[in-house]
Structure formats: C-alpha cells, structure tokens
C-alpha cells in the first residue's frame, strides 16, 4: 500500500494496460438487438444498475432486470413512436407516443392502462415529481399537468408551440424546451419565462438540456453546449466535437456525458471538467445515439437504432492487454504522461493469474478510484465498479453486467467459472457476498457494522479470510454453511441427528452434540464415497450445534454426512431433490 500511495498521490482518470493476463475492458460495449425489427430506440431510463427500460418505434418497449444483458419486449398497447418514458420507481411509470395516448403501469410494465388526453396530440416527453404530480409536453402546443397520477390532465402551456423535453427538479421548479427557447417555471407550471432564447435560429435547434440543481444546468445545440450557474441568467457556450448532441446528462458539476451523432455515426462523449473539454468514448458507424442514462457514476447506457451501448467504468477507465508474453515478475510502471490533463496511462505486469487491485489515492491517503479484478484464464474474468460487476468470457471483447449487494466492491476472488466472493462496503457496513453462478446472483454472507472489508484471500474454495479496519473475518466452509450453537449445556453423549427437512432443496439443517471440547469434522459424501463438502473441520467446544447446509452447487441425489471426533463416528443419509 505504501508503494501505491507514493506512486499514485494524484487524482486520475486512468487507462490501464497489462501484460501476462488477457483482460480487456472496452470503454463502452454495444449490444445489437435483432428482435425489434430495426426500430429506433429513442428513450431509455435506468432506475438501478440492473433495472431499466427502453422504448422507440412501432410501439417498441423493453425491460431489463440484469443491467441490459437481456431485454424483454413487453406489449404496452401502442403501435406508434414512443418518445416519452418516465418511471418514478420500479413499478410505476408512464409512456407517451404519437397516438394521443398516455399509458400507465403500476406493476413494472406487466400491465398498462390508457389515460385520457385530447385527440391529435403527440406526447414528446413526460416527467413526474411524485406518484400524483406530473407533466407531459406535446408537439401540438400543449403542456399537460396532472395532480392525480394521470387520471386527469390540464393544459398549462404559455404558448401554442412545439414543446419537447420537460424536467422538474422539485414540485415547483422545472424547465421545458422548444425549438427556440428554454422556459422555466418556479411555481409548478403556473407561470413560465424564457431563460434562453435562440433568436432567428442563430445557433441551430436546441437538442437537449439537463439541470443538476436550480442554478446549474446545460443545454446542447449543434456542435456546442451552453452552461449556466445562475439559474439561466447567463450562459457560457462551448464548442463540442459532436454535430448533433441529442442527449446530455451530468452526475455532478464536473462529470457528464453527451450522446448523439455526426450525420452518419453515433457518438458518445464525456467531460471531467464541466464541459470545458470533451473526449470521444464510443463511435457507432451507420447509427445514431438518441438518449443516455446513468444509474451511478460508473454504470451507464445509451440507445440508438436497434442498439444499446453500456459502460461499467463511466467510460473513464479502459483496460487492455498489450502483450501475451508471461512477464518474469510483477511490476508497476510510472504513469505516462506525467504531469497529465486529464488522462494518463498506467502499465503493469502480472506474472501469475491472481487477485489484483489498482487504487488511486490523494495527498491525504484517501482512496479516490478503485478497480478490482480477477481472471481464471485468458478468456474468463471479472471486474468491479460501483454497485456492480462485469464478466467476460472472450478475453474482454464483450462484457456482461450484473448487480452486486454492495456499493463499493473492493476485493474479488473466483475459484471457477461459477463460485466466487466479493468483499467491500455498503454504506457504513462491511459486506462479504458469494455467487454460485458466475456473478449473476449474489448472497450476502457476512456483514460487519461500522467497518469495511478491503482485501480477501482463499487457499481453497472452503478456507478464506477477509480483512478490514482492525478486523479479520474467516470461513472454513466457503460460507455456504452457517454454524450456530443452540445450547451451552454439556450433552451426556455425542450424537448426530437426522437432517431436516429431508428430502431438501437446496438447504437443510443438521444438528449434533459434542460432550467434550475436541477436534471435530462433519463431512458430506456422495454415493461413491467421494467427499463433496466439509462442513466442520476444527476444534469445537462442548455443546449442541446446528448447521444450515446450502447444497446449491450439488446435483440431485443421495448423500451421506459423517460426524467424526477422536471418540465418536456416526453417519446418516440425506436426499437432495432439485
């Protein structure tokens, strides 16, 4: 750690290269959707790193619950272009289209009901400040407001012009965009004033806008972006190398992204200095990007014509292999260039497949950027980001994204393509989680209140340790077994009870009595006599115990479990039925 602090005492947006292990991390990876008839996807919205929605042409509406790895096409009762999409939580959302309809769901998109609006109205955008109060902007000159969840809508538009994107930051303050003006309200739509006027189309059609607070916001125009820090009284215009920036989002006053196109090529760009300069992160030939959404500062998506691109590093960290030659030793190189602004390259060598972490610290020793990764071989590996994990099975050409039950996953270890552990923190608590299916699903197995887990080490898939602030946690059973003492009364004899329930799937309880403090082992065997799991293998005090055994990784069948001490041996039979 001291070497790392001495070498990396600055804040960087890093590009990492390695030799010896094949892992490549693209800034953005694109999924090409062949089952939506080539339709444009115009809007998308992610509420969490795993749950998101996308919509577009011919009534297309899709939902994902695994971070965009798979998308389910849902019937929402629309056949026209769906341009308006807003979900206030994972269950309740609204859609607007070219069909003079607003559709509402209260069960995550499984069912939809139509809400009445006048005919010949094309809904361009929808925004809600609560489950009751919402707004819908229409191309026909209307801005509708509802105070009862969409049952009734009232037109509050100040002018009958072409309205586009609408955003409210609280119940009073909001903005709505037209081709020529950005209007603002501070009383829930009662009154609107223009805070940016595009007189005579001198700077081209407004494309999109985003407000981080009542004072700080951005508006995109062809080849440019304008920023205000005083609620729209003054604007500072900067040129961007993207011709049509159709969507913009900022997660703080410095970090932001725009998505759009340069006529025939889709482009995603990022800034780390509030829009003063921009770097290209993704180009998609013969396509357009229409919308961009981020669940957190690392995890984001952008949609276009039958495509969805995603990043798990905010597009600001890239990892690639520079040599397949196995290095003779581990090494960390000096970053280049140095000094730098805003990006630099850091190279390092890994001579054996192993857990590795690369962390950035400021002058106070505070960690400011973390990247945990582990690889089984040249094809299969994992890399963590805030609130998520990504897996590759083709050496980094493509990555699948999954959620993880901790905000900061600092340590990562896999024993095979299915079984792995992750340790870190969630809020103010340290967390250890385990997966049995390659990272798709995770189960929390240890929580340390008021602490954090930084590192993790295993000598086999049963025996491992995790370290935190003045603590070390350990497991001798891969954390698939939880052992609890049910009584401190000293038993009269050793005994092994029949498991319950039996048959079971996938968990069962095994109770046993220990009459003297002794070394004890409790092991599980299959029908051939092969040992498949060690449940206990340690010195244990006298008393009565119960074990909760999870057999998720075993196949259905008959198994035997044997309790053995220096003075006692007993075996019983159990049946796993999946």
Structural class: mainly beta
In CATH, the topology of the largest domain is named Methylamine Dehydrogenase, Chain H
If helices are DSSP runs of H or I spanning 4 or more residues, what is the number of helices?
Answer: 1
Largest sheet: 5 strands, antiparallel
Number of strands: 52
Return the average pLDDT rounded to an integer. Answer: 82
CATH top level label of the largest domain: Mainly Beta
Q: What is the annotated CATH architecture of the largest domain?
A: 7 Propeller
Question: How large a portion of the residues is in β-strands, by DSSP E?
Answer: over 45%
Kindly report the name of the CATH homologous superfamily of the largest domain: YVTN repeat-like/Quinoprotein amine dehydrogenase
What's the gyration radius in Å?
28 Å
Overall number of structural domains: 3
Large-scale geometry? elongated
The first-to-last residue Cα distance is 46 Å
Overall helicity: under 10%
Query: How do the strands of the widest beta sheet line up side by side?
Result: 33-34-35-36-37
Ranges with pLDDT <50 over ≥5 residues? Answer: 1-26
If you had to describe this structure to a student in words, what would you say it looks like?
The protein has 578 residues and is mainly β. The protein folds into 3 domains: 2-8 and 353-475, no CATH class; 29-311, YVTN repeat-like/Quinoprotein amine dehydrogenase (Methylamine Dehydrogenase, Chain H), CATH 2.130.10; 481-576, Immunoglobulin-like. 1% of the residues lie in helices and 50% in strands. It contains 1 helix and 52 strands. The strands form 13 sheets. Strands 33-34-35-36-37 form a 5-stranded antiparallel sheet, with no helix packed on it. A hairpin with a 5-residue loop joins strand 38 and strand 39. The protein is elongated and about 90 Å long.
